[in-house]
Amino acid sequence: xxxxxxxxxxxxxxxxxxVVGLFIMNIGIAFSIKSNLGSTPVVAVPYTISIIxxxxxxxxxxxxxxxxxxxxxLLLRKAFHPxxxxxxxxxxxxxxxxxxxxxxxxxxxxxxxxxxxxIFLILGIVILAFGLFLYVPTNVVPxxxxxxxxxxxxxxxxxxxxxxxxxxxxxIIISLSLSLIFHVSDITVGIGTIIAALSVGTTVKIMNxxxxxxxxxxxxxxxx
Length: 224
Description:
The chain has helices at about 10-35, 40-55, 55-75, 85-105, 115-135, 145-155, 160-180, 190-215. With about 220 residues, the chain is mostly helical.
């Protein structure tokens, strides 16, 4: 299992990079939602719950991510160490960033032009990938949805990459099921969700290749 903390001292620079990465990820998520082509898999379920309940998507995301940590606890049991509970605080921070990002983009009126929708979707994917590029190498505390992927990979004795794909697909299926059950008219899962699921990881790898050419070294993207 990937260490939740690096063996080296966690420096302030890494913490800042970690927090900035999480915030940028949520800006990307907000752009994806604003495109009206479907939210990204990481927020598909809480976004659908938000539409159904009328509760702010950031609050729904906080609650969902805390629930995810509980699932990790049930899966790992004795292997779930107290420090893993820090994911709860990360989930709350991540949810708060979701709310802030949606507020920032709320000044943009609803988009019904397909070309602009596609532009917003691409922006969402690229920005989300850049956030991941900053956040993943810090190796501080994973966002709960990534922690769940780790827990399932341990429980099922499968690779993280394989379980990551399954996790994204599961989030999409749950979101679609909720939308059908509660007759949600808004597009919570669409072609944009599928495209994001298939392209974010590749976009991060491309960014890492560019980074390697510019600096002569690669970022540590073990999770990707």
